[in-house]
Specification:
Layout (H helix, E strand, L loop, with lengths): L3 E12 L2 E12 L3 E5 L6 H9 L6 E6 L2 E2 L5 H6 L2 E4 L11 H10 L7 H6 L2 H14 L15 H13 L5 E5 L6 H15 L5 E4 L3 H7 L2 E6 L2 E6 L1 H6 L1 H8 L4
Parallel strand pairs: 3-8, 3-9, 6-7, 7-8
Antiparallel strand pairs: 1-2, 1-4, 4-5, 9-10
Helix pairs in contact: 3-5, 3-6, 5-6
The chain binds adenosine-5'-diphosphate (ADP) and magnesium ion.
Amino acid sequence: MTEVVLETRGICKTFGALAASRDISLELRAGEIHALIGPNGAGKSTLIAQIAGGLQPDAGQVLLAGEDITACDRAARARRGLARTFQISALAMEDTVLQNALLGALGAGGSPFAMWRRALGMQDLRAVAETALERVGLAGKAAHLAAELSHGERRQLEVAVALTLNPKAFVMDEPMAGLGTQGSKAMTGFLDGLRSQAPILLVEHDMDAVFALADRISVLVYGQIIATGTVAETRADPAVRAAYLGEDA
Ligand code: ADP
Ligand code: MG
């Protein structure tokens, strides 16, 4: 069996009378891109927030590398290797690309790595930052200001910042949003290569990207996962077509 890196078990969340998460169990396995799709209001962002730690579930658990992290806040989950990218842009626009990556390599204050990182020389930190920039294809723009990057490149830089902390898993909410056709294609190629660094739980509306990238797809409708399967299985599933994809999928 492939290793399960990130897992939810029986996540439930209600907002008043509305059940936004209904008994959600899913697995993100090593090496995979697992897409989470569903109509607007299905509860995708609510689930992502509970996985990342911004929102506490009413019931259920979140596990990272087999460890129950449900009680951890967002920062603690990030330190344990859960990389949440693209929603809250943490880039310093007036700093260079390399400086942004260095800030990531230094780690947020209070990190358990802080002491160890202080012990690292500036040269080592620089090497960590430069390696991360190389991995996302931004090494050639290290001296540019973050403000000079395109939208797509900024997202790549956010991933580089995340990579400096050696993440175990990525969680991404709509990385293609606002990128345009060319940008989406470039981002698709980028994410395709990124899955070998760490598996990705991907919420995305762009179905071309989802079908091109996903090893597995889970379909969320009214707070409930109605199907999980490969791209082919998902496209052929009558319940999914009826609830979400439509007959033209
Ligand atoms: P999606 O990301 O799939 O579009 P959301 O997770 O944003 O869906 O929302 C799921 C449902 O929960 C929606 O009906 C939304 O209005 C509701 N919702 C989300 N957050 C809150 C909140 N903080 N308080 C009340 N209702 C919320
Ligand atoms: Mg959403």
